[in-house]
Amino acid sequence: MKSVQSILHWKSASVSNVKTMTTLALLIALYCVLQMVTINLSTTLRVSFSFVALALSCALYGFWPNAAFALIADFIGYLVHPDGAYMPLFALILVVKAWIYTCFFYGKDKVSVPRLLLGQLCAVVVCNILLNPLLLHWMYGMPYWVLVSSRLVKNALCYPIECLALYFALKTVLNIYSRAKPAAATQIKA
Predict the structure, then answer these.
(1) Residue 116 within a domain
(2) How many separate domains does the chain show?
(3) Domain containing 105: what range?
(4) Which secondary structure element, helix H or strand E, spans residue 155, and what is its range?
(5) What are the DSSP calls for 52-67, one per residue?
(6) Fewer CB near the last or first residue (10 Å), C or N of the chain?
(7) Domain contains 60
(8) 123-179: per-residue pLDDT in tens?
(9) What is the CATH number of the domain that holds 129?
């Protein structure tokens, strides 16, 4: 695993690159589309695959571009598909999820199944099971443990499906990215 300093390092050269900004913009658009395609189980519980776009971005770029990704994607996602009042603290939870995904996936050339399972488990436990219910409890006064118990069941059932989706998405994107890297390097040298 990379050191904390290298994960939190701002790579301004890569962020100012047009290809990087375009890729981030496309992944934000993918995030917004995937966020619109949700299965609502209740008013506070839904199934979505928007995390895949965030994880893909975290695998390709460092933490700071993905912190901006999380803030922008949450806001644009709300503008495109509003669902109640906008609460910026949910964007901070998305930033925490971006940090977790960056710790596990950033700078890796291959998809390791144990690393993927552990990274997704950490993101699910910290963000989906602990932080989201805490914020909902704070906002609406709903009992915290009731929210946690319903999320435990939902996330336990969705975890294998999410891991499979994440595995195939990461494997495909990292293969494409690794093949595109040498071609871009030869174009620059020529």
Answers:
(1) yes
(2) 1
(3) 4-182
(4) helix 144-189
(5) HHHHHHHHHS-HHHHH
(6) C
(7) yes
(8) 999 999 999 999 999 988 989 999 999 899 989 989 999 999 999 999 999 999 888
(9) 1.10.1760.20
